[in-house]
């Protein structure tokens, strides 16, 4: 039986097989799930913002797409993964509230998704599946068995990526 490990907001965790990493309540936040098919190692980070450029020293690096994904990859390598065997799946990035203005800074979910894709591309990690956007929250579970990402939504059912 795989251990279920919770990943909180602005947190990252890695695990060796058998395990399931889960994070709850992804709204505009993004869950970036990494899987190494050779070792069956998994990793998950729950990012809140696209860039750490606004951060002060000592800020939580897992809060941001740029630093959180880099740290997650380093943790995967630390437990025995080779970056060349890692693939990614992302979920979240919803626009949870309607704004009267079309101000880009308010589109945090969309900006988080774009930043996550860009960081993964810069690290040459293939993004093999995603479930982003919309205006609803998601809960995700990443299985070390085969890298399946289960995406649960209220009103939209369950998807497997």
UniProtKB/TrEMBL annotation:
Keywords: Chemotaxis, Hydrolase. GO terms for biological process: chemotaxis. It comes from the Bacteria. The keyword Lipid metabolism does not apply. SUPFAM superfamilies: CNF1/YfiH-like putative cysteine hydrolases (SSF64438). It catalyses: L-glutaminyl-[protein] + H2O = L-glutamyl-[protein] + NH4(+). One of its GO terms (molecular function) is protein-glutamine glutaminase activity. InterPro entries: CheD-like_sf, Chemorcpt_Glu_NH3ase_CheD, Cytotoxic_necrot_fac-like_cat. It is an enzyme of class 3 (hydrolase). The keyword Iron-sulfur does not apply. Its EC number is 3.5.1.44. Pfam families: CheD (PF03975). Probably deamidates glutamine residues to glutamate on methyl-accepting chemotaxis receptors (MCPs), playing an important role in chemotaxis. Belongs to the CheD family. This is Probable chemoreceptor glutamine deamidase CheD. The lineage of its organism: Bacteria, Bacillati, Bacillota, Clostridia, Eubacteriales.
